[in-house]
Write a structure and sequence with these properties.
Layout: E1 2-4, E2 10-13, E3 20-27, E4 38-45, E5 49-50, E6 57-65, E7 69-73, E8 79-81, E9 88-91, E10 96-99, E11 105-113, E12 117-152, E13 155-160, E14 164-190
Antiparallel strand pairs: 1-14, 2-3, 3-4, 4-11, 5-10, 6-9, 6-11, 7-8, 7-10, 12-13, 12-14
C-alpha cells in the first residue's frame, strides 16, 4: 500500500495550456502526457473552452468542487456534470468543450490508454464505516474531502482531503473504511 499525500502531487500546465492540473498518480512512473498508460489528476477549470485532445485515451470526469460544468461531447447530447452526478466516462480523443454556468470548478480526471488498460471510477460517501471490495489489478482510493482511515489486512492508513492510497498489482480483497469523507475508488486493469 502506497500513500500519495496531497503535498507531494505534481503541478503542471494543461496539455493545451489553458490551465493547471495536479497529477496524483501516473503509470509508468515518470511518463509524460503523450506516453502514459493511465493517469489520475485534478484540475481547476476557471473559464469556458475546449478540452485537450489525448489520442487513444478514455477519460472519466467527476466534479469535486463548484456548481458544475456543462459538457459538449461530440456525438452526444450536452450534459451538466455536478458534484451529485455519477462519474462520466467518454473518449478523450474526440472534440469536447465545456462551459461553466456558475463559475469555477475543480474536477477529478482519470485517463487510461485504450487497448492497453481500462479503468472504472466509483464515488463513495463515507459516514461512519463502509467496506469496499477491490478486484485484482491496480486500485487507487482518492479522498476528495473529509478524513478517513483505510485498512486492508494488517495495513492501515489515514487519508485527509487530497490524499490517495495506491495498491499496485493487488490480488483483490476488501478495504475497511471509517470516518467522514467523499472518496473515489478507481480500479485499473489490463484491457
Amino acid at each position: 500500500m502506497k500513500v500519495l499525500r496531497a503535498a507531494g502531487h505534481k503541478r503542471m500546465p494543461w496539455k493545451n495550456g489553458g490551465g493547471e492540473t495536479v497529477e496524483i498518480a501516473i503509470s509508468p512512473e515518470g511518463a509524460g502526457l503523450s506516453d502514459f498508460d493511465w493517469r489520475v489528476s485534478t484540475a481547476t477549470v476557471a473559464s469556458d473552452g475546449p478540452f485537450s485532445v489525448f489520442p487513444g485515451i478514455d477519460r472519466t470526469l467527476s466534479i469535486l468542487e463548484g456548481e458544475g460544468m456543462r459538457l459538449f461531447i461530440e456525438g452526444r447530447e450536452p450534459v451538466l456534470l455536478t458534484q451529485e452526478s455519477k462519474p462520466l466516462a467518454f473518449a478523450a480523443d474526440i472534440a469536447v468543450s465545456a462551459t461553466l454556468p456558475d463559475g469555477t470548478i475543480t474536477d477529478l480526471n482519470v485517463m487510461s490508454r485504450r487497448g492497453t488498460v481500462r479503468h472504472a471510477v466509483a464515488q463513495h460517501f463515507i459516514d461512519g464505516k463502509k467496506s469496499l471490495a477491490f478486484a485484482k489489478g491496480i486500485f487507487l482510493l482518492f479522498c476528495a474531502n473529509g478524513t478517513l482511515a483505510a485498512r486492508t489486512g494488517a495495513q492501515s492508513i489515514e487519508l485527509d482531503a487530497g490524499d490517495a492510497m495506491l495498491l499496485e498489482e493487488s490480488d483483490g480483497g476488501r478495504l475497511d473504511l471509517s470516518g467522514q469523507a467523499l472518496c473515489y475508488a478507481i480500479s485499473i486493469d489490463k484491457a
